[in-house]
């Protein structure tokens, strides 16, 4: 969704190998309506204020891209980029998304979303963006539930260089720990910790969204 003034980009990370759910790739798994998980995740993001939207691909990139485009209700078509070094860890996938967001000078920050967290709703995304844009001098925004942080995380553009410099498979965990005392917080529900990365959890996902 476009808007006047500074914007917050969305980066959806969808490059992992999904080894814990082999042979099924979790992002291709259907919900109760038949919609693939990656498309369900993107439905909420495309309906939000986030702009532009980038999906970072890697393992089984062509299949994930096709699945991501199956939702006729999606608010916009995302830009797809492939992280050539995605096998080196989550940090490289994140860096590919941050580089894409950095190319837009009007972007004040980036909301980093995980492709396997389809329960995250548009309302939470918009609330995080609104909170950040009201206080753009802060390092970002994190959602909280029962005193614990979760995903997605919104990062200020000021931290893009630090995000690009990350290495390994830990993502931005250490960077978040360094800045968490000054990060803005938004109250959220248990969905901020609900991922689907085991066969049992995929069975749970297959029963989600029975109302469409």
TrEMBL record:
Name of the protein: Nucleotidyltransferase family protein
Chain ranges of the MobA-like NTP transferase domain: 10-180
UniProt key word Magnesium: yes
PANTHER family in the cross-refs: MOLYBDENUM COFACTOR CYTIDYLYLTRANSFERASE
Species lineage: Bacteria, Pseudomonadati, Pseudomonadota, Alphaproteobacteria, Acetobacterales
Pfam (any one): NTP_transf_3
SUPFAM superfamilies with a match to the protein in the record: Nucleotide-diphospho-sugar transferases (SSF53448)
Tree of life domain: Bacteria
Keyword set, alphabetical order: Magnesium
């Amino acid at each position: 969704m476009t808007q006047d003034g500074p914007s917050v980009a969305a980066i959806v990370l969808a490059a992992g190998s999904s080894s814990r759910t082999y042979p099924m790739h979790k992002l291709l798994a259907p919900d109760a309506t038949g919609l693939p998980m990656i498309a369900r995740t993107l439905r909420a993001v495309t309906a939000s204020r986030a702009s532009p939207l980038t999906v970072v691909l890697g393992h089984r990139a062509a299949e994930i891209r096709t699945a991501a485009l199956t939702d006729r209700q999606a608010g916009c078509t995302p830009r797809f980029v492939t992280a050539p070094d995605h096998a080196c860890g989550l940090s490289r996938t994140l860096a590919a998304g941050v580089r894409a967001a950095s190319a837009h000078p009007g972007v004040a920050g980036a909301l980093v979303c995980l492709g396997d967290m389809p329960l995250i709703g548009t309302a939470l995304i918009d609330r995080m963006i609104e909170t950040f844009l009201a206080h753009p001098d802060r390092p970002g925004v994190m959602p909280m539930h029962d005193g614990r942080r979760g995903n997605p995380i919104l990062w200020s553009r000021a931290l893009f260089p630090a995000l690009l410099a990350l290495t390994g498979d830990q993502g931005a965990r250490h960077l978040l720990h360094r800045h968490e005392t000054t990060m803005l917080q938004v109250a959220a529900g248990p969905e901020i910790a609900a991922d689907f990365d085991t066969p049992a959890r995929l069975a749970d996902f297959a029963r989600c969204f029975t109302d469409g």
